[in-house]
Amino acid sequence: xxxxxxxxxxxxxxxxxxxxxxxxxxxxxxxxxxxxxxxxxxxxxxxxxxxxxxxxxxxxxxxxxxxxxxxxxxxxxxxxxxxxxxxxxxxxxxxxxxxxxxxxxxxxxxxxxxxxxxxxxxxxxxxxxxxxxxxxxxxxxxxxxxxxxxxxxxxxxxxxxxxxxxxxxxxxxxxxxxxxxxxxxxxxxxxxxxxxxxxxxxxxxxxxxxxxxxxxxxxxxxxxxxxxxxxxxxxxxxxxxxxxxxxxxxxxxxxxxxxxxxxxxxxxxxxxxxxxxxxxxxxxxxxxxxxxxxxxxxxxxxxxxxxxxxxxxxxxxxxxxxxxxxxxxxxxxxxxxxxxxxxxxxxxxxxxxxxxxxxxxxxxxxxxxxxxxxxxxxxxxxxxxxxxxxxxxxxxxxxxxxxxxxxxxxxxxxxxxxxxxxxxxxxxxxxxxxxxxxxxxxxxxxxxxxxxxxxxxxxxxxxxxxxxxxxxxxxxxxxxxxxxxxxxxxxxxxxxxxxxxxxxxxxxxxxxxxxxxxxxxxxxxxxxxxxxxxxxxxxxxxxxxxxxxxxxxxxxxxxxxxxxxxxxxxxxxxxxxxxxxxxxxxxxxxxxxxxxxxxxxxxxxxxxxxxxxxxxxxxxxxxxxxxxxxxxxxxxxxxxxxxxxxxxxxxxxxxxxxxxxxxxxxxxxxxxxxxxxxxxxxxxxxxxxxxxxxxxxxxxxxxxxxxxxxxxxxxxxxxxxxxxxxxxxxxxxxxxxxxxxxxxxxxxxxxxxxxxxxxxxxxxxxxxxxxxxxxxxxxxxxxxxxxxxxxxxxxxxxxxxxxxxxxxxxxxxxxxxxxxxxxxxxxxxxxxxxxxxxxxxxxxxxxxxxxxxxxxxxxxxxxxxxxxxxxxxxxxxxxxxxxxxxxxxxxxxxxxxxxxxxxxxxxxxxxxxxxxxxxxxxxxxxxxxxxxxxxxxxxxxxxxxxxxxxxxxxxxxxxxxxxxxxxxxxxxxxxxxxxxxxxxxxxxxxxxxxxxxxxxxxxxxxxxxxxxxxxxxxxxxxxxxxxxxxxxxxxxxxxxxxxxxxxxxxxxxxxxxxxxxxxxxxxxxxxxxxxxxxxxxxxxxxxxxxxxxxxxxx
Length: 1098
Known about the structure:
Helix content is 50%, strand content 14%. The radius of gyration is 37 Å and the shape is elongated. The two termini are 72 Å apart.
């Protein structure tokens, strides 16, 4: 077939017109994978009409209707470098990583997972060895700790460079000064790093040990014994009540898998006659960390350790590296190039005399301080300080920094991807609306429902308790009442009863926690006081529904595996036997229950679920779809409730088919679903319920602040489209002035093509798209869709799976190159949080899984405002200033060394002795430089009041090649002034040039710190005077180090000389000349071109 892709290939080859060029073109195409991509397009889409339908990405193209569809593959391919360019620009790194991963996988072959037969209470009967039931969150073990930590450090160019430089000092011909000059700073940096990693690793070990040492009760032939969590084996019986056993039974279970919503297995007991065979499903399982609502449990262990669902679904979190660290790594590479260039210049000016290559290497060592080794340790200590400040901030209590390496990322965010339920909303449901088709009840008319329930149950009770004569009068008022009134009353009765029965809620009596199972029923029958009762369920929606039925008079008072009891307004107990339960799943979007009324023996099948699932199940009606839309627009979560009465014969037939389907091993889910669907036909529609999920505190002002800060917010939720859209409006994620484009559901490439064209015409409107449509768009038009979506002020993705959430994060990172932040509160948000550049977890009602997996943990969504605007800003600004100042500190001393060598006929002789070099980077200047972590350009209140200031941070202007070059020029100027000034003013006392220049250097550095600081802190003043005092003391006690070059030169410091007025005024003059012009320039800049924050503070 002559597809457009092949035409493109042939046309391009024809235009080159040279056979050799044609061959090279085809070879390049093969190497880049473009031909494979063309054939993939041909196979994926056979509809030729798309070839003539352009997806245009510009307004001009759309107006002119140019047919440039064939350029679509190139639009995507052009985003990636190909061929030799790809290899040079990072492809080699990718190839090395792939090869190492392949070797690791070869060495660490995973055992094939298989289905298993587990004998109850007999771990020794297991056919194969299963993993130990131990939690391990440690990164290293005793053998891999040192190699692992060293690898993480030396993968940074900075540390690797200094390792090479330090090792070169073992070569006599290259040795300059003392070994400790190079090894002491490197050893200090590595010691600090190893110590920090060791502390973190020890904390992880302690947490793991605490979890693995938890005691559980295990049932054995000898009775109950206590075992540690790590000693639990497959086949063990874990109990929470005293019992003995003698049983010959086993469980056949499917192989370990990722799906947490399904389980297939069978239970077989062989010591009974006949043998017992029971099917096991997800309802018969308890996953790790499950909370038991009430009662007691005996369970057999099926999976342990790495084979548990929770561990298999947890991806190994990547080691996150901040953008600032990557930028500094690039700058150190630029410094290295400058170092090489300077050394080559010196050797060239020397005239390449003698062993010039040796001199070249010696110059590389002499100027090695251009790249400051203290940079990493200063930044790491700064990050630790930022983390401490965040956790000590009283305005955001409970905030925890779990990843201390990326606090600066909080100040560089462009995209915020947030969950909805529990993050923007409280996950606290309140029943708001009941709709019966002809009449609707809201919060202000619930008393009418209550009166209907009281009347209906009083009549039912009087009919059941009285004789035939007394039952007649109770019917007469009903018959004389209007027909509509009677109809509404009976429908309310049926609807409330259905809501009270169709759920998975369990009432728990907190004050009765220690009562044994036998006496629990008796005591519950006697005392139904509300203060003792609490409801527990997997879904807060169900709890809200049951709490509402209690408020209108029908109360759930007890529930076990086989029955549930309701209390009527008159205090009478209604017992219903639970025959079957069909739990809610994300695929079915509904749950059902079959119950038998104890008093009448009637069997009823109740079902509730989402309108999309229930609309085809219930009988024909003309109001359901419209009312669901109305409720969704109010921000309510809707559930459709229906019922179906069954005869005994119908139920027995269903039960036999259902049990048979549950026992099948192959395609069990499909067979079970088919049997259940046979019941789900022509069900009677009872009512439509609306439940509201309340917004978190201060969500609206927080989102407004983030939007003003230039952060684009995407809401990723598993909820349905209408509810997600309504929450987006009510939370002001989408402002009132903005239009909303709801992306039409698409299933084919052609539909996606047309819908994207329609969406492209819209301007400044928020996008709402479902997960299914998103999949189709990303399959065919990934680049085009992301380009359009990124132009939107807000995006809402509904019906998203956890995997899709993480995929969207990676798409934004790949296509935009901007920093992303993900925030969520549940286990389904973990993958998104781990994929983002910065993950924030909220400790919510869905547990701590998201909080523990995140880089930062907060207690409320509103805290994110201060976390980003204040702490993110300060961390980035401070680290940028700190990093550049540390580089300036190395550049200035290297400039002085270059001037010194030039004066001495380009000799590769060190200006300062080893101790002075070590002291210069540590005790003489470390404290003032590190005090920059306390600096701030604006007050926290101002940063929160004017979030627009945050926009400047995302542009990266605080640390760029421009600011870096400014600091390089400052360093060259000051280094030249200090060295030439010392040579000029001290010509007669030239032997004292080391003391003179070094003193001026220290004073200059202290003054430069003062020049850089924007807001003074008392610790900064202390650091300045402490460093100055240390230097003055060393002048007196370490004078042998202040000679020129090596000690053999015989030039030592004369203490009497440095106390003369001449020494003091000349040192002061040099210092003033080096610093005063910079102070003047700073004053003029702030006066004529002030930064945005200074305008606000003034």
